Amino acid sequence: MAFDPGATYRLRMRARVEAQPGREGEAFWAGVYDPKNKKSHGGITRKTAEVGDGYAWYDVAEWVPEPDHYFWVGPGRFDVKAGAASAIRALYIDCIELSRAD
After folding, report:
1. Angle at CA 69, nearest 5°, toward 45 and 65?
2. CA distance readout (Å), 36 to 11, 22, 60, 66, 91
3. Where do the structural domains in the chain lie, given as residue ranges?
4. Are 12 and 60 in contact (CB under 8 A)?
């Protein structure tokens, strides 16, 4: 394992959102998941009104990594069955940073 056992780590990502003009909604969501225990270890959701035009750093989670944990990120959710459309055109991830938090 690439992490120090029992140590807390911080996960950040540098992202840019290309919003759809005139639409409001989720820009993206991201987090850390433990499939073995079916448990989240933190995450974030950002709305289009909360993100700017350029790249910015976002704190995703602080947790103690274990085998099988994984990081995920996705574009904002929307209800296509109800006729909704995405609030964004694109989501770009420039960097992912992992560092010890303690």
Report:
1. 95
2. 20, 41, 20, 10, 29
3. 9-100
4. yes
For the stretch 12-70, pLDDT in tens is 999 999 999 999 999 999 999 999 999 999 999 999 999 998 999 999 999 999 999 99
Q: What is the mean pLDDT of residues 65-87?
A: 93
Determine how many CB atoms are found less than 10 A away from the CB of residue 32: 20
Q: Kindly list the distances between the CA atom of residue 13 and the CA atoms of 5, 21, 39, 80, in Å, as whole numbers in the listed order.
A: 23, 24, 21, 27
Which two three-digit tokens encode residue 3? 């992490």
